[in-house]
């Protein structure tokens, strides 16, 4: 066991991503037999009192962490965030007789809009393609339709590494947010949102479960013709037990939320730590006199995914190779954009970010 521990490297993968060590240890401890139950969390019924407790605690923890008001429901779904691209439009656009506005800030936002367009009219209220998705819009740049069914944003574009510092001002139109890669990275003013969805495998747990938080009034507007398994109301009504949910994945989300509450001390603390981790990497980029070129403009920089380029591909390959030799892995950027991407999610320890910072300084020969 000890050797396995010593084998652990710093995993900068964008997802599935690093989990808190404590969470893995707890899951390991319980894997063969849950205390007082005698069954593994991989074997146990989703109708068991144990899992009922898991669902209740996970929801309660999320409510505490994000101060979620009583007029919001929380459900746990499968199909990842990409299924949500379709479900949001099926549930909120179908039959609405209106169009939806999309703020296209990167690859994921673009894909979300394309999927919505299969279901109804989706228009870009802003599009970042002309400047290669290197920044986010100011409110005055938005071309919003005041009658839209909803406005969709991607709070953090995982591939480009741009993140909204705060919610855009969208008037009375419900704000729908793909928060897949920055869910739980900081406190949120929940009342600004109509719906938030996040697959767990970036910042909240393992792959297999997606958290959806939805305001009551949006549930009321859903069209009756949807297949049951695609209708948010059915998940709310059956408390996420419409069919067999991903039991083990929800259990890990519970452990992660517990870790955030008990060990980190809440999302304001987490935010502060995330700022420090990303800041130390951006500082090296800014001090490198152009050796490292950050992708995102400074005011749109992500706390979660730090994206940059080196002078040429050969140097970049060297960087990835030498980093790996030091136990700093998964630094290669997304295949669609190239470059380097260091994902420093909640569970990336401070020492991991420090080690990467030191390596970046050394590699660029910064004194
Ligand atoms: C990873 C990611 C997705 C896709 O999630 P899946 O669970 O793989 O479908 C969507 N949006 C964002 C912002 C992501 O980071």
Layout: helices, strands, pairs:
Blueprint: H1 2-7, E1 10-11, H2 21-30, H3 49-66, E2 72-77, H4 80-92, E3 100-104, H5 107-116, E4 122-127, E5 151-154, E6 156-157, E7 162-163, E8 175-178, E9 195-199, E10 210-215, H6 216-220, H7 232-237, H8 247-264, H9 267-287, E11 293-294, E12 305-309, H10 313-325, E13 328-329, E14 340-343, H11 350-363
Parallel strand pairs: 1-13, 3-4, 3-5, 5-8, 8-9
Antiparallel strand pairs: 2-10, 6-7, 9-10, 11-12, 12-14
Helix pairs in contact: 2-8, 3-8, 4-5, 9-11
Bound molecules: pyridoxal-5'-phosphate.
How would you describe what is shown here?
This protein is of the alpha/beta class and 367 residues long. It folds into two domains: 28-263, Type I PLP-dependent aspartate aminotransferase-like (Major domain) (Aspartate Aminotransferase, domain 2, 3-Layer(aba) Sandwich); 266-364, Alpha-Beta Complex (Aspartate Aminotransferase, domain 1). 37% of the residues lie in helices and 15% in strands. The protein contains eleven helices and 14 strands. It has helices at residues 2-7, 21-30, 49-66, 80-92, 107-116, 216-220, 232-237, 247-264, 267-287, 313-325, 350-363, and strands spanning 10-11, 72-77, 100-104, 122-127, 151-154, 156-157, 162-163, 175-178, 195-199, 210-215, 293-294, 305-309, 328-329, 340-343. A hairpin with a 4-residue loop joins strand 6 and strand 7. The longest helix is centred in the last third of the chain and has 21 residues, at 267-287. The chain is globular, with a radius of gyration of 21 Å. The structure holds pyridoxal-5'-phosphate. Pyridoxal-5'-phosphate is lined by residues 15, 80-82, 108, 154, 158, 178, 180-181, 199, 202.
